[in-house]
Amino acid sequence: MKKTIALLTGGTTGEWVVSVKSAATIAQNLDTTKYDVYKIMLTENGWFYEPADSVKIDIDKNDFSLTLNGRKIKFDGVFIAIHGSPGEDGKLQGYFDMLGIPYTTCSALTSAITMNKGYTKAIVHGIKNLNVAKSVQIFKNTTFSVDDIKAELKLPYFVKPNNGGSSIGMSKVKHADDLQSALDKAFKEDTQVLIEEFVEGREFSVGVFKTKGKIVVLPATEVIPANEFFDFEAKYTPGATEEITPGRMSDEEKNKVEQVVADVYEKLNCNGIVRIDYFLEKETSNFYFIEINTIPGQTATSFIPQQVAAMGMELKDFYTQVIEETI
Q1: pLDDT tens readout for residues 69-111
Q2: Residue 277 annotated as lining a ligand binding site
Q3: Pathway it acts in (predicted)?
């Protein structure tokens, strides 16, 4: 008996563009012998299903159902492919929890916490072999001193929206005089901003998921951006970044990374596919946690599809394992 799956895409932030591309990859690789898939678009103007040969059909938000040709379709589960709000911040997860519909991502609580970079760092602090860069978290409508930030942190530093994604609104600050403009840019995206000291090292990104109750760490991708850092352009422009999968790590580094990211997945009570970004510090190879993405990109240029291929797995099998574990 096939399961009926809603593939939820779109969103209400600038990341909706990435979400649509991610959903296209997922749709192409879901096993149609096991699942009847309906791609549902969520926008600020409504939630709807758009058949190829028909007009948009609104979703009934009372029970997340769809009426097609007089037949009411209810879903066995939801594959959430919305980056940013409301897909990655816990809002949709809470909605589906109230309806009793399972989904492929972390819980509402984990999703909400991990959208906040500062809160996440506080929780993962203390995990064996994990380090976090020194940072200051500030809030838009409260008093803070730019001079105090400059006194507390060493240049250069990264300034980033605390709840954002895809590196939107992020800046690398090399000169203290540039801090205020970087803060202004970040505050356009969020009411909370994180200022972190720069860690000099090699940057990596690694996917983690759970199958049959076991945490599986995918081969990590080493990220060498042509730009100053791994910004939105570098992430989504083919050829703008050199990406090496599997990344160049010694066996000792690889074992340490697998231990740390599995512990992060467990401590944050994750489900489904997550992606953890980290640095291996120059000289020491110490692991520095950057952030976790609980709905990582699945576009043609995204890391997760690359890492699944490097593991010798087909995307169809990968997505099947994710659905079977979570739905």
Answers
A1: 899 999 999 999 999 899 999 999 999 999 999 999 999 999 9
A2: yes
A3: Cell wall biogenesis; peptidoglycan biosynthesis
Residue 218: DSSP 8-state = P
Mean pLDDT of 57-69: 96
268/253 same-domain check: yes
State how far the Cα of 132 lies from the Cα of 135, in Å rounded to an integer: 8
CA atoms within 13 A on the CB side of 321: 17
Does 54 participate in catalysis according to the annotation?
no
Catalytic one of 19, 85, 111, 166: 166
Of the candidates 236, 241, 238, the residue with the CA atom closest to the CA atom of residue 221: 241
Q: Measured over all CA atoms, what is the biggest interatomic distance in the chain, rounded to whole angstroms?
A: 66
Give residue 106's identity as a one-letter amino acid code: C
Which pLDDT tens digit goes with each residue over 120-131? 999 999 999 999
Question: How far apart (Å, rounded) are the C-alpha atoms in residues 37 and 262?
Answer: 31
pLDDT at 51: 83
- Per the annotation, the verdict on 171 as an active-site residue is no
Per-residue pLDDT band for 234 (boundaries 50, 70, 90) equals very low
- My answer on whether 241 and 314 are in the same domain is yes
The pTM (predicted TM-score) of the whole model is 0.89
* Same domain membership, residue 153 and residue 291: no
Tokens coding 106: 């972390």
Question: Which structural domain range is residue 144 located in?
Answer: 135-197
Q: Percent of the chain scored above 70 by pLDDT? A: 94
Q: Is 15 a catalytic residue?
A: yes
